[in-house]
Amino acid sequence: MARPPGQFRQGWHRLCRNRSGLLGLSLVAFVVLVALIGPEFAPYTPNDQSAMLSFTAKGAPTWAHLFGTDRNGYDVLTRVIYGAPTALAVGLGAMLVASVIGILVGGIAGYLGGTADELLMRFTEFFLVIPVFIMILAVVRLFSIVVVGTPLERLPFLNLATIIVLLGLFGWPPIARLARAEFLRLKNMDFVEAARCIGAQPRDILFRHILPNALPSLVVVIALGIGGAILSESMISFLGFGDPKAISWGQLLYFNYEVLRVSPWAVLAPGGAIFITVLGFNLLADGLSDAFNPRLKQ
Amino acid sequence: MVGILRYLIRRLLFSMLLVLGVSAIIFFLLNAIGNPVDVLMADNPGITDQALAAVKAYYHLDAPVWQRYLIWLGHVAQLDFGTSISTNLPVGGMLLTFGAETLKLQIPAILLALLMAIAFAAVAAVRQYSRTDFGVMSAALFGHSLPGFLLGVLLILIFAYWLGIFPSYGAYSTRNPLMGSYVIDGAWHMVLPLTMLTVFNTATLTLLLRANLVDVLRQDFIMAARASGLPERRVVFHHALRNAIIPVLTYLGILFGLMLATAPVTESVFTWPGAGALYLSAIQALDYPLIMGETMVVTVMLVGFTLLTDLAYVLIDPRIRLD
Q1: What ipTM did this prediction achieve?
Q2: Which domain CATH number covers A268?
Q3: Does A193 fall in a domain?
Q4: With an 8 Å Cβ cutoff, is B144 touching chain A?
Q5: Alpha-helical regions (H) of chain A
Q6: pTM for the complete prediction?
Q7: Nearest neighbour of A275 by CB, restricted to B26, B147, B306
């Protein structure tokens, strides 16, 4: 017996017919590909500073260094490639944290309604007015000082992990709001009623019946959030509060911005990488929202 | 009228609660990471006992953290943000001076962007799915995804380094102002950062406005307006725009509310002496009173503009019920 196509398959078909959505998907796929196999093809090792010794640091693009070299003597192309996994780790990590909190808070608020809903949504409102970006800057800076001399200091990429967790901890309110609206809409649908009638546990109703049906809408905000988190991390690093040990696009900007006039390629290359990634996720989110909610666009 | 007043009072009370809550969260978070003295000690191991005692007395560090929060809050309620550790100046005065430099860029950038977005969105929405629409929307989506700092970098490279028309940093020349006037000189320095902010705001506002306009233009009262023989220009700008701009108010409120919070990036790119740059130096110097003061001002602005937005909704759109 042939099953009718599910909402994800239908959405996929509509996405394939959406030109800007497809462009977004290809850009994101490209970045993922670079992150996964790029390091195999990188022309140099990421910590190769030999250009420094041959006095070719800050060198213009040549065949040997396609994107030039930066002020520390690194090959810019290599560093940009190695920045891709970092960027994706930041985007996915932050949104993983944000989705878990957001779906729990919003889902429970929407499903229970009443006082619980009121309380949880007021709680969400508190988080919406926290000036997240400048808060994260302060917390990252203070944390990096306090941690000196404690066992935590020896953890690799501690600073980067802090940034990821903070972006997630402060990035969940939009997800919670949407999750609440979706759970509110779905909880009185017939299939939920049916599940309740056969005696399904509330936990199963929430996560096995309602959540999969709320996912299409949530995926759109999450895709937008991934791009947003990547941009935030690069701006935090650009301002000098990033992880000095991590290879990220923001770090490249931070180290090279002062010599913009001498070696603009070392700023433009990582800047372009950030742009492509953010544009990719924005277009993808746009296409997904058209694909999953076709009635909105006619 | 009584309804509006009651709504206003309830919203004001909740907003104050929000500000209190956020300030408490931030205060406890900053103090949970490390109290000011520990952090100062870690950063300046050579600090003298005398200086340490003075700092301890200043922060009431013998008191528990919630008491310190209440003391700080009491001072803030009297608009006393304390004295900056790094400059020894009153925090309130510093925020005013530096904040003014930020607002000088941000307010014109938002207003200019709104005007341009209205024009672009109207052109695109009237000819939905035409080439013009596609062009405007692609440009807007492009501009919306272009990270602000990258646009700033491109502007500096082209107009400051290669063409040499505009200065690449600062708000004023240190000597020899342009044409002997500090007003012209200041305006000259504003061009590039203002362009960067305006382009970004315009792109996002155009995306929002066009989507709303397309929706509104499909509604019956627009057909009625057209059928009554009104000129198209009047239908679009008078009847449709009024309804389409209402949902955009929320975003405008956020833009205004976040004027200081988004400043650090702009002001690092252009070495602009504003509140964002001040905040960054406060973090570098671990200047607790300054960090707390600025986060507080940013939060109040954000909450205040959200409140204003909600009020504007009620005043503009009679369909909204107060409950």
Answers
A1: 0.83
A2: 1.10.3720.10
A3: yes
A4: yes
A5: 7-16, 19-41, 50-53, 76-112, 114-128, 132-146, 158-171, 173-186, 190-197, 202-204, 211-238, 249-256, 265-292
A6: 0.87
A7: B147
